[in-house]
């Protein structure tokens, strides 16, 4: 019997389109094995790099909540609240490459039918850094990874040649892709930052340089909130904060807009949709905007009792997708992927009550 949840994305066969995004849920062999046992179709590992990593001397992630009565957003535990978003300033994996490699081998050997994508990150602007991209790519592919995701999107890197800082530079995007594609022959996904006005250009440069997919969105650059009573930030170290990243439901609409921008500019290219997926409704919205693969982070971390890998969440996502396909008579997500594209038009193309509106311009006589 065919599996209606199965999807081919960038040439890889996924048993279902749901993937844990690069983040704490995929930071260790133990968690990834548990994720696969729970049913996730793939994982993107926590980003692996070669440069020194030391996280802040305090909490790395907080979960913000809101409520109907006094609906302020806060991490403080209050009755009758619902999740709003995550905020984090966590750096990439502090587990060295040498330790990751045997773990990746074991994971792939244990779950050969699940897609193992390695997120990697190095710097830019020198031959040494291009060699670092090559070293990382070669090593993870030799360890059995099915694809690579290039992290050009981490919003809180001090180094100006890394993460979101480089995603605005098309030359760097091209040179990193040239380096990586010169040494490996697996699909390359490029994770871009949503925080740029030139996103479609960056995506275009990446596709042209050999990217099989754009993964979008990483967290949105943002600050934590200050508590009016204590006059302290809700997360800080010695009274100080710095820009971090927001994820979870609160970024859903913005993430969809970014995915739509790329999807409409490059309708034939692949997109892995990320940002605020908490259940089937959000996943559906990414698919209709053109995403062929769905990544989840905050919602899996928020799930209590699952060790932060979204055990119940993946069951729900799979059941809800299967129900939906059956109810609507669709053979797979491909039958409705991208249907929202043509319904997104210029503001002036939306009907007005009168006939005469000319997009804010005077009509010429
Ligand atoms: C604590 C935390 C750590 C993260 N670390 C990484 C990372 O190492 N590499 C990466 O590409 N994205 C990282 N992300 C971003 C997520 O992969 C994802 O893009 C983002 O959280 C949006 O998805 P969500 O709304 O489902 O959380 C991290 C997110 C969180 C919350």
Automatic annotation (TrEMBL):
GO annotation, biological process: thymine catabolic process; uracil catabolic process
Gene3D superfamilies noted in UniProt: Aldolase class I
Keyword Oxidoreductase recorded: yes
EC nos: 1.3.1.1
Catalytic activity entry: 5,6-dihydrothymine + NAD(+) = thymine + NADH + H(+); 5,6-dihydrouracil + NAD(+) = uracil + NADH + H(+)
Function: Involved in pyrimidine base degradation. Catalyzes physiologically the reduction of uracil to 5,6-dihydrouracil (DHU) by using NADH as a specific cosubstrate. It also catalyzes the reverse reaction and the reduction of thymine to 5,6-dihydrothymine (DHT).
Full protein name: dihydrouracil dehydrogenase (NAD(+))
Species of provenance: Pseudooceanicola antarcticus
